[in-house]
Amino acid sequence: MSGNAARVQAVHQITNRALIPPKPPERLEDIWAENVFNLSKMQASLPKAVFKSIKNTIVTGEKLDPSIADTVALAMRDWATSKGALYYAHVFYPMTNLSAEKHDGFISVQGDGNVISEFSGKVLVQGEPDGSSFPNGGIRDTFEARGYTGWDVTSPAYIMETDNGSTLCIPTVFVSWTGEALDKKVPLLRSIAAMDKAANKVLKLLGNANVAHVNSSCGAEQEYFLIDANFASQRPDLLLAGRTLFGKAPAKGQEFDDHYFGAIPERVQVFMQDVEETLYKLGIPAKTRHNEVAPGQFEIAPFFEAANVASDHQQLLMTVLKHTAKQHGFVCLLHEKPFAGINGSGKHVNWSVGNATQGNLLDPGDSPHDNAQFLVFCGAVIRGVHKYGPLMRAVIATASNDHRLGANEAPPAIMSVYLGTQLEEVFEQIKTGTVTESKQKGVMDLGVDVLPHLTKDAGDRNRTSPFAFTGNRFEFRAVGSSQSVSGPLIALNTMLADSLDWVGNRLESELANGLELSTAILTVLKEVMETHGAVVFGGNGYSEEWHKMAVDDRGLANLRTTADALPTLKEAYIEDLFAKTGVLTPVELASRFEVYAEQYILSIEVEAKLVVNMAKTIIYPAALEYLAKLSSTIASLAGLGVDFDKESAKKIADLTNAMVATTSKLSTALAKHDFATTENKMQYCAQTLRPLMDEVRLSADALEGEVADSFWPLPTYQEMLFIK
Ligand code: ADP
Ligand code: MG
Q1: Domain-ending residue, one of 578, 599, 620
Q2: pLDDT, tens digit, for every residue of 522-562?
């Protein structure tokens, strides 16, 4: 098909497609967690003692008693097979942002050639996928490619229903033969343990006798785009890179703000209902759904859960979105910036820490005691963000998120903390030591305590901050939409562990000096604010002034690109942080740098190659064809003595020439391979390849505005964003 014939056909197919009729909605309580082997199903199927033991492991994170594995495996298999599962899979979370799984049948071949249905504790607890095809950053050589998966008891097993049948999925950790973490789950679990330990000590110092296991919680808001599959299949860039590398802005974009919270298109609603039903069955509490700012953009936000479970559920949610989209004739784009000039997608990671005895530790609470506790934890967070801001930046650094951070729609690449007016004032007062004087605002209640009493306030909002306090949690808003939330959660838990450890030691020594608890707290918090207060910022994070002030006056880092941010992982103080908290060994951390750097380089190289291919083989021929038509018209009219407009032809010729020239520059640039270090290569991608890609695009998009629509081969922004 030449010209726009394929596009026309796609539009025809979309506008004439029969809508998948919405299923009659099921009652939530009927389907909730029906595909999950959760505590209540365990209770129903396990002997009492076994259930008690496994519940203890799940709730407290204590070591699993290996002697119960066989019994649990049997109950799990019976439940799964009763639901039609023929296979089981150890699901793991490699250092990419994806999930991986290895499927096995429930059968085992016996010596006599017969098969029996088998699923022992041993295979439940440990698996051995071929680890060689997963990135490991040099930890293992491929010939020594053994990697092991191990059952994560704290994240429930579930059944995944696909067109090919049902599979029992068991969330697992993934480690090397030598015991190094090869995934995102191991360090997440370790970071929770480190935070638990430090938090426990602080809570006890604060006078709590009974302190339960402290866990971290996460509620992630996922933004995504839906476009029709008929269009996506005609765009090599969407297929291979997940974003458009070309495309002129449509006449109407998002400037009317008419999409946000507008009515959800019917076809999308049917899709959402389908997604939610699947999620409910998987025990994933999908709660809010709405349109987002850009046309074709939506959001889904499950209710928060324990960080480890939330993280697995987040991976599953991305899988379900993609899979269900396919069934509805859509493609779900999780890329951070699928369309230039149109808002990108993020994943706000709402994060807190808490336990069964003291509750949410980032909730100001009602009593002065709760308030004091809150201020201590909040102060620890402030210290953490200031000390380890570059780490927070590094864990959200990907080629795709670089398109968002620092642009005028997403938080800047500078890490700061937004506290809200009231809380910011309280911390300011703690810093200057004038807490006793702000009573008139009704904010402070000194009571018997010298600590301020905070009023409960959901908190004013600041959408320009990368990390904002929102009443009883922090919202890490700079995380990318396609990312696993594990990386950010690991960073947050680990830096909090370090800060709480510091706070604990400081409190201990002030108490030993004879200070009253409340005075000791104020002394320590004052020190936090004096040393780390520069990271607190309540103004407009998008403004030029902030970018200047943050760097020049406050000494905060502005790591603009992934190439700038990732080397943070090699800094000695980051290596120390992970080593002393026991979250990652130096070898594990170094391997992570290699893996993430490699992913960054690869994705830019793939995009650059695509730019060259598409410019040469799709856009150039279209321009040429139209130019030929224009030129022959001009020539034949000249034969008739008519001097026809030559400007358009000239403009197209000039733009085509410019595109050809930059494409060839990009081609040459891509051939360079001699780099001294990985860092050099990353910088080359950021500084040379990416600007050249933009340059090619500039001429190509201008051509799209000159060449007749009937000659243009690629589905346009207008079609992709507005036709559903
Ligand atoms: P908004 O769009 O205003 O930021 P949403 O309601 O879309 O808010 O999302 C808020 C998210 O924060 C939800 O996933 C919610 O469950 C989560 N959340 C609420 N409390 C906590 C908490 N204590 N810890 C972690 N996440 C939380
Ligand atoms: Mg939010």
Answers
A1: 599
A2: 999 999 999 999 999 999 999 999 999 999 999 999 999 99
Q: Which range (249-263, 285-299, 643-657) has the least confidence?
A: 249-263
Residues 348 and 450 in one domain: yes
Whether 46 contacts 75, CB under 8 Å: yes
Is the same domain home to 441 and 577? yes
| Interval 278-318: pLDDT, tens | 999 999 999 777 777 778 999 999 999 999 999 999 999 99
**Is 354 contained in some domain?**
yes
Q: What is the distance in A from the centroid of ligand 1 to the CA of 349?
A: 8
Atom of ligand 1 nearest to the CA of 288: 7
Pocket of ligand 1 (CB under 6 A): 217-219, 221, 288, 301-304, 348, 350-352, 360, 472-473
> CATH number, domain at 66?
3.10.20.70
Q: Which atom of ligand 1 is nearest to the CA of 354?
A: 23
Q: In a 10 Å sphere around its CB, with 0-12 CB exposed, 13-18 middle and 19+ buried, how is residue 32 labelled?
A: middle
Instruction: Give the residue carrying structure tokens 């604010």.
Output: 529
Residue 662 CA to ligand 2 centre (angstroms): 40
Reduced to 3 states, what is the DSSP secondary structure of residue 384? helix
Could you tell me the CATH number of the domain that includes residue 562? Answer: 3.30.590.10
How far is the C-alpha of 143 from the C-alpha of 146, rounded, in Å? Answer: 8
Structural domain total, the chain: 2
Contact 309, 154 (CB under 8 A): yes
Taking 70 as the threshold, does the pLDDT of residue 452 lie above it?
no
